[in-house]
Fold:
Amino acid sequence: MMGRIWVIATSEASARQLAQEADLDAAEVECVTWVELLRRWPDAPAVPLVLLDWSQGGAQAAGALPFLRHLMDSEIWAVVGSAAESQIAVDAGVSVTLRRPFPPRALRRAARALQRAASPAASSVGGGVAGGGVVGGGERRFEQIVALQRDLSAAPSPDAFAGRLAEGLGEMLKAVVVVRVFAWGCGPEVVRGSGALGADELESLEGPAAVEALGTLRSVACDGAQARSARAGGAASRHATTLVPLLGAGRARGLILIRPAQRSLSREDLACAELVASQAGAQLGKFGGADSTEEDVVATMLRALERRDPTTCQHSRRAALYAEELLALSGVPPGQPDYRDAVRGALLHDVGKIGVPDEVLLQPDPLSDTQWEALRQHPYLSYRMLSGVEFLAGAAEIAHAHHERYDGSGYPRGLAGTAIPLGARVFAVVDAFDAMTSDRPYRRALAADAARSEIERCAGSQFDPAVVEAFKEMYRRRFRRRFRSQAA
Structure:
């Protein structure tokens, strides 16, 4: 009988040795050589996990990864011996890297959790660097968001939905969480909490802060009878309650109450709560009558990103506006699904940065190698967050590919030429232009003409030459006039 985990190496002996090193149960493992894998590919089964020994046969692995992903639909992890090997494996498309030595039984526990999940879920274990995840607490938080999204999608009723949302978010934030779903077509009002509900929680769901949250459709923090809007970059007072609206069909369909157990909500906590709320709002529609409008979900995700990193969110909004014009000049007119997906992908391309730790995301100094590895995971994190919402599947592909390069030297998958979606090739140009013409903590903005010259120089290497030609026309029509007026 086939094992649930495939271990692949240059020889069966090496594969068995790796399985033993990882302390995997022999009954769960199928040890396969690269040659044997090629022979069996036409009938390869869908298995939850493929484990590669990158130190032996890395070149074979890099060539085989696209086929492994397409034909087996498996999560792919690689054991590496150094940070350099880890980076090469991640660039080739490995979900997770594990650097030797890793703790006994760590991989077995992770593999069993993956099997129980019944769907791919990247994770990082042991002493290594995460490939498809991020380093430290940010990676755990991101995996919790993905797991909760999957759990909510399986909820059979509004009551179960509210209960799972309260329990999952409560565990994520180490807080008391109460979810109130208002009465609508499918049944009566539902109130469920992650613990015993007290009078304070129930009163907060009806009080002035709740009225403000429902009226403004924004998160509100309140301490006793005093309520104030939660502002980007600021945290609520100690142990303050925060109310986050659940949006559906253009209006509030419920509230999430969050009361931290031991500390106030951080900016990262609030951003994660708002992201979960946007995903939950999108899923409420399966019960009938309260389907979130697509714009609601996009707007809520943007607010979550703004809470996490206002500068990144402002960049996303500007770049998306530029992308609208450049898409039309590149042959993708408004009204087509590809146009809509590309614009949404541009708006949400950096939403995965919600899962990147503060010490990386907010670092004003040059990043270390390890921090840079963590930051390079954000296209994959954006893809996983967006692909869980059905109508954002196309936008997820744009976000996943926005750091690919036309010559194939980009990341995370090393796509080249027309293998990169056109929307991502278009966005790559305006993304770079806006980044170069904006101030950063470590440098001043470039002049517009200098940024345009750099984009023209990189045509054929970083950027699609045809898109660069369209950008030159766009610059002539719009950017040159705008930047000249600013200078005046």
The longest helix spans residues 465-487. The CA atoms of residues 182 and 188 lie 7 Å apart. The radius of gyration is 24 Å.
